[in-house]
Amino acid sequence: MEGNVALMMEILGPSGIVIPTEQRAALRRSLAVKKRDARLRAITLWGRLLTSTGRDYLLARGCNGISPSTKHFDTHYYYSQDGVVWMDLQAPSEEIRQASRSIRGCFTGEPSHIFSVELPAVPYSQNLEAGESERTDSVEKRAEGESQNQGEAESQEGAERTEVKAEEADPEIEIRQDDEEDMNEDAEDGGDNDKSKVRSGFRTVDVRELERLATFMHEVDHDCGVVPKGFLIYNSKKELVSNVNFPGIKFPTFLDSYVHLFQSYEESPLSDDVKGSWSLEEVPFEGVILRSLWWPGYVFYYTENSKDFGSFYLGMGEKNMDLPFMI
Predict the structure, then answer these.
(1) How would you classify the pairing of strands 202-208 and 114-120?
(2) Domain that holds residue 159
(3) Same domain, 190 and 315
(4) Same domain, residue pair 117 and 241
(5) Torsion from C-alpha of 64, 67, 71, 74, nearest 10 degrees
(6) Of 141, 165, 200, which one is at a domain's C-terminal end?
(7) Residues near 254 by beta carbon (within 8 Å), at least 6 away in sequence
(8) pLDDT in tens, 232-278
(9) Total structural domains within the chain
(10) pTM for this one?
């Protein structure tokens, strides 16, 4: 799973995948040094993230073992802005991931930049449960009140008629019984409105750019992360290892020939994805190139002669949420 950077750039160059010459010259050595220092089994160049300031991020992924059956992925993410020094990206918490998914706009290129994100004060599922229980209680109370009022309606009619006559005789009476009931109902409605304001409250979560960057790489790996079917096999520890007898892909132009590495592997072919979410291009005498429409910028290639493959991301780091309306 350790790709050849020079070969990958040569194959994907016509597709617009490029890296500055000085960074490309330093990558081969710097990635080898990072692999040794971090004690990784494999490390590969993952992509290049474009930023609004021009200080783009070079991204890499290291791996020590993958076991989809137990959902254990011993992978590590790294970033660099010069192609020489590689820094670790720490795995963010679930709250930070949720906040990162709601951020829109370009990355700034400043690792210390902080995004302020508004999230519900209470998790969405708890809001739903609380709302359902309150609505149920209010419906029950209203039903009880209606049954009681229906039984008392006849007795109140006589009292109201007496009150009307008394008002005509004594104009100083200003408040009637039904007016008091209306005032009480208004007070209850006001209390309900106060509760709704509490339920719709928000809290601010600060997300560092590096946390958003780690979340972005994890999301792309989960949604894409393509490998040829049969290239990896399970060993005795139920870990995925390279198949030394990999025969190649028999039908490279079929989506069934490719699977998601970070999902269920053998049970997650690309043909099961949303129809139209992948673009497949056949390059004569070379191989095929796959492009993700969910994540514009993600490209996967496979060469038929050498059976070599790899993937690269070059883009702004935003998911195409309009895809369902485009296909």
Answers:
(1) antiparallel
(2) 124-200
(3) no
(4) yes
(5) 0
(6) 200
(7) 271
(8) 888 887 778 888 889 899 999 999 999 998 887 778 899 999 999 99
(9) 2
(10) 0.74
